[in-house]
Design a protein that fits this description.
heterodimer; A: 2 domains; four-stranded mixed sheet; three-stranded antiparallel sheet; 42% helix; B: 172 residues; alpha/beta; five-stranded mixed sheet; 5 strands
Chain lengths: 475, 172
C-alpha cells in the first residue's frame, strides 16, 4: 500500500494545467503514478443547442495553441452535416493552413519546451534550463526558432485573417481564395524554413546518437499506434483513413473516420478529467494506443515529400523497421513532421488549383443530422463528432482530442520514469523534471483534451508513512 | 524623434480584460490615426514615430519589431486592490521562467528582446484596474472612466520622449 505521495504541480512547459502524484511504498519505491488533468471545460455539453455551423468558431476556442486543428476538424464534420463536398481548391487551402499550424506548433514545442532538457540536460539548474538559456547558449538557433514559429503563424494569418482563432472555413469550403501576393510571400521564405527544420533535425539526431541508451530506455514501452494515412499508406495530416497498428507493427485496423465508434472507446478514471481512449476490439486495459508524431511515423509506410522521406527512412532504422517505443523519439519525429509540413506547403503552393477562386460548394442543403470530422492535429488524431436535430441545432457532441488519445501513454510514461528514478530518500530536482519531461514528450494540450462536465474533486495532499501531511513538491 | 510603440493586450471577450483595446483606439483618434477593428492588430500600419497595436497576448514574434523602437508602452488590465485604478510603472527587463507556456510578462518580453536582438527599448507598463471579467465585450463603468486619463498619460509620455530622449524613462 502506498504511504508517501510526491506531487509535482503544475507540470511545467506544457500547455494546460496538470499534476503528477507519485505514491511510494514502505520501502521508498514507487507504488503507483498518476498524471492528473484537473482542467474542467465542458465544451461537449455547452455546445448542445448551438447551430452546427457555429462549431468551427466555437471549438477552436478550446485552445489558443492549436485552434486551427479544431477549426478544420469541425469544418469537416459540418461539411457532412450540410451534405456539401468542398471543391478541390478549398481542400488544398484548408490543408495549407493546417501545415502552417503544424510548423508553428511543432517548432515552438521543440525549441521552447523540449530543447532546454536536451541541450542542458535534465539535471541542469532550472534557472538556465529554459528558453532564455537557449537564447544565451545559441542565439542564432533561438532566432531560427522564433522565425519558424512566425512563418507558420503567418501562413495561418494570410489565409484566415488572424494567427489565433482564424476566420476561414465554411460548410462546403473556405471563405476566400488565396491571394497571389500571399502565395508569393509564403513561398519566398520556404527554403529558408526548410534549412531551419533540417538544422533542428540535426540537433535531435545528434542528441539521440550521443544518448542512445537513454533515448531507447526512457519512458519506453510497447503500445498500439494510430494515425491517418493516404491511399498509399503515406503520412497524411489533413484527410485520409485511420490506421491502427499493434506493438509489433502488425495492422490491427484501417477504417473511415465516420466508422470510428466501431473501433474507439473511452475509459474513465475518477482521478482525472481526461478520459482514456482505446482500441475497442482489444478492450481496456489492453487496447490503448499512441498518437502524434511518433504514433504517426510508426503507422505510415512512407512520407510523400522528398527530404522528409529520407529522414523517415533513417528513423525506421532505429528499431529495424519495427515501431519505435522510446517516448523521447517524439521530439525527433516531431521535427521530421516539421520538415514534411514545410515541403508540403511547397507542393500545395505549386498546385495549379491553389489560386483558384472556386473555394466553396453551394447548392441545396439537406441536413444529414450527423457529421464526423477527423484530422491529424500536431499532437495526434482529433475527432469531432456532431449530431443535430432537423433544424441543425446540436443534440450531441463528442470530441476525442489528440492529447486525450495519449492519456494512457502519458500516465505510463510518467510511471516508467518514476520507477526508474524515484526511490525514497532525497528527491532531486532533476528527477522530478524527468517525470515532467516524459509527459512533455507528448506535447500535451490539456485545455483541448478536457471537455467532460461533472464534479471537481481536486485533492492536493501529501501523506507521510503515518498518514500525516508532508510538504508538497511544486513549482 | 524617439520611436514609440504602444502595445495594448488582453482579451476583448472578457470585458475589462480588453480595456487596452479601447485605450489604443482612443489614443489613435487623438493622434489622427484610424481605429483598429476588433480583429486587427495594427501590425500592417507600423510606419510612423508613434505606433500602436492591440494583441491578445505578448508573443515572441513581436520582439523583432519592438527592438527597432526606442520606447515601448505596454497597456493591460490589473486586478490588484492595492494598486491605483490607473497606474504606470517603468518596466525593468528580467526573464522569469513561467510554469505556463502561454503567458509572457513585459519584463520577460523585454529581456528576451535584448537577448535575441541585442537591443532593448525603454519600457513602461500602464495598467487599468479591471472590475468585470465576465464573458462579453465592453467595459465596466469604472474601467471606462479611466480610458481618457490613460490616453492623457500616454500622450504626456510621448511628449516627454520627444523633448528629452536619452534621459532615464519615468512615468508622469
Amino acid at each position: 500500500m502506498a504511504v508517501r505521495k510526491i506531487t509535482i504541480e503544475p507540470v511545467t512547459r506544457i500547455e494546460g494545467h496538470a499534476r503528477v502524484t507519485i505514491h511510494l511504498n514502505e520501502q521508498g519505491g514507487v507504488e503507483q503514478t498518476f498524471f492528473h488533468v484537473d482542467e474542467f471545460r465542458g465544451m461537449e455539453k455547452f455546445s448542445e443547442g448551438r447551430p452546427y455551423f457555429e462549431m468551427p468558431q466555437i471549438t477552436q476556442r478550446i485552445c489558443g495553441i492549436c485552434p486551427v486543428s479544431h477549426h478544420l476538424a469541425s469544418a469537416k464534420a459540418c461539411d457532412e452535416i450540410a451534405g456539401v463536398e468542398p471543391p478541390r481548391p478549398a481542400k488544398l487551402l484548408r490543408e495549407l493552413m493546417h501545415m502552417g499550424q503544424v510548423v508553428q506548433s511543432h517548432g515552438m514545442h521543440f525549441f521552447h519546451l523540449a530543447a532546454p532538457d536536451l541541450i542542458f540536460g535534465f539535471d541542469a539548474d532550472p534557472a538556465t534550463r529554459n528558453v532564455f538559456g537557449i537564447i544565451k547558449a545559441n542565439p542564432e538557433l533561438a532566432l531560427k526558432a522564433v522565425n519558424l514559429r512566425r512563418y507558420g503563424q503567418q501562413v495561418i494569418e494570410r489565409l484566415g485573417s488572424k494567427r489565433v482563432h482564424p476566420y476561414f472555413t465554411v460548410p462546403g469550403g473556405v471563405n476566400a481564395p488565396l491571394k497571389p501576393a500571399d502565395r508569393e510571400a509564403i513561398a519566398s521564405e520556404r527554403e529558408t524554413m526548410v534549412g531551419y527544420a533540417q538544422d533542428a533535425i540535426g540537433i535531435a539526431k545528434g542528441w539521440i546518437e550521443e544518448n542512445k541508451k537513454l533515448a531507447d530506455s526512457f519512458a519506453s514501452f510497447p503500445s498500439n499506434y494510430m494515425g491517418l494515412v493516404d491511399q498509399e499508406g503515406g503520412l497524411q495530416l489533413y484527410d485520409g483513413d485511420i490506421r491502427v497498428r499493434d506493438a509489433e507493427g502488425g495492422l490491427l485496423a484501417q477504417f473511415k473516420p465516420a466508422e470510428y465508434l466501431e473501433y474507439v472507446a473511452e475509459h474513465v478514471e475518477p482521478w482525472s478529467f481526461l478520459k482514456f481512449p482505446y482500441y475497442k476490439k482489444q478492450g481496456w486495459p489492453k487496447g490503448p494506443y499512441r498518437v502524434g508524431p511518433l504514433g504517426r511515423l510508426n503507422v505510415v509506410d512512407k512520407i510523400g515529400t522528398p527530404l522528409a522521406a529520407e529522414e523517415f527512412k533513417l528513423f525506421k532504422q532505429v528499431r529495424g523497421g519495427k515501431p519505435v517505443e522510446g517516448s523521447l523519439y517524439y521530439h525527433y519525429t516531431r521535427l521530421i513532421e516539421v520538415l514534411y509540413a514545410i515541403e508540403r506547403i511547397g507542393q500545395l503552393l505549386d498546385d495549379p488549383d491553389i489560386l483558384s477562386k472556386e473555394v466553396r460548394s453551394y447548392g441545396t442543403v439537406e441536413l444529414s443530422g450527423h457529421g464526423v470530422g477527423v484530422i491529424e492535429a500536431p499532437r495526434g488524431t482529433l475527432f469531432h463528432d456532431y449530431s443535430t436535430d432537423p433544424d441543425g441545432l446540436l443534440t450531441r457532441v463528442n470530441l476525442i482530442v489528440a492529447t486525450g488519445n495519449n492519456n494512457w501513454a502519458m500516465n505510463k510514461s510518467a510511471g516508467a520514469v518514476a520507477e526508474a528514478f524515484v526511490n525514497g530518500g532525497e528527491i532531486k530536482e532533476g528527477v522530478l523534471n524527468r517525470v515532467e519531461a516524459a509527459i512533455r514528450c507528448y506535447d500535451p494540450c490539456l485545455s483541448c483534451s478536457t471537455h467532460a462536465i461533472g464534479q471537481m474533486p481536486l485533492e492536493i495532499t501529501l501523506l507521510a508513512a503515518n498518514g500525516t501531511v508532508l510538504d508538497r513538491v511544486a513549482r | 524623434m524617439a520611436r514609440t510603440l504602444i502595445i495594448g493586450y488582453g482579451n476583448l471577450d472578457r470585458t475589462d480584460d480588453g480595456v487596452a483595446f479601447y485605450v489604443v483606439n482612443a489614443l489613435r483618434q487623438r493622434l489622427g490615426q484610424p481605429p483598429l477593428s476588433p480583429d486587427e492588430t495594427g501590425s500592417e500600419q507600423l510606419t510612423g514615430e508613434r505606433d500602436s497595436v492591440f494583441l491578445r497576448q505578448l508573443q515572441p514574434e513581436w520582439m523583432e519589431t519592438c527592438a527597432s523602437y526606442d520606447q515601448v508602452i505596454f497597456i493591460d488590465a490589473h486586478v490588484h486592490e492595492n494598486t491605483a485604478e490607473l497606474a504606470c510603472v517603468p518596466v525593468q527587463s528580467e526573464y522569469v521562467p513561467s510554469p505556463f507556456t502561454h503567458h509572457m510578462t513585459p519584463p520577460t518580453f523585454l529581456a528576451l528582446t535584448q537577448a535575441l536582438y541585442g537591443r532593448e527599448p525603454a519600457g513602461r507598463l500602464l495598467s487599468i484596474r479591471g472590475h468585470d471579467f465576465d464573458f462579453h465585450r465592453g467595459l465596466s463603468p469604472a474601467a471606462a472612466g479611466q480610458v481618457a486619463a490613460a490616453v492623457e498619460m500616454i500622450l504626456g509620455m510621448l511628449e516627454e520622449a520627444s523633448l528629452s530622449w536619452g534621459m532615464e524613462a519615468s512615468c508622469i
